[in-house]
Amino acid sequence: MSMTTTSASTDGLALRFWGVRGSTPVSGPDYVEFGGNTPCMEIRCGDRLFLLDAGSGLNACGLHHRDALPKDIDLLFSHLHLDHTAGLPFFKPVVLDAGRTINTYCGNLDGASAEAALDRLFSPPLFPVTLDVIPCRFAHHGFKAGEPLVFPDGVRVDTILLNHPQGSTGYRFTHQGRRLCVISDIEHTDPWPDPALSEFVRGADLMVYDGMFTEGEYPCCRGWGHSTWQKGVELARAAGVKALAIIHIHPAHTDAMLRRIEVEMQDVMPTAFIARERQQIDVGAPACAGRTRLSLVG
């Protein structure tokens, strides 16, 4: 797989990974290439910015952009488990900017917003600072996964409920004829692929999928809410998905192991790859149609 330093187009659909690990952050010499932060993605539909999940990778996102982020930030949660929320109080735009609004969207709580859960998480004795005293303003929005999100500028994001303990929300972004689907955290069902999920991701230029376990690991972890790259490939093939990115990487999977897995996966699906921190993708660009070209940013 080749690496380039091209940047995403300003009018297209772009994705950048800021955290790709599942469960807990990791560090050290065995975790340099793929990274060690928990889930956070930056998605741009033209000029509109979305952040998806607030894992430990959110800190790096805030440091990178500094003052370049919009005053109103739309933060979409797949769900509220710790590895998807722990970065929130360390996000520099939250800590430093009193003129900023963080709009949170959560779809796995039967219509309730993330407000009550986040207030419990970020309060003594679990955390010394409550979110209501942080300089920025929070506006929490609840919805039921399966309902579309329609924003004031007309951008629509479709959603689906995923099979995960306490539920998780999958997202579909469509812009300028390009389609990106983020399907994490999810455990595959039997039979597979699920027809409703296949229809949701059908024809996507890129699908981001939870491939935390190897096939050998999965039987011991059944019911934990995660899947394998093989099931991601099955879903992609059934739905005509053009490229596949594996995320929610197991914290014990080293760079060497992931490189071996990626080679095995690309022998089956050449446009599949394992996501890397700070990797940037122009979704639907010609590079996404062949063996996927990647960009790493500082």
TrEMBL record:
Q: Where is the Metallo-beta-lactamase domain?
A: 37-212
Q: Which Pfam families match?
A: Lactamase_B_2
What SMART domains is this protein classified in? Lactamase_B
Q: Where are the transmembrane segments?
A: none
Q: Which residues form a coiled coil?
A: none
What is this protein's name? Answer: Ribonuclease BN
Name of encoding gene:
rbn
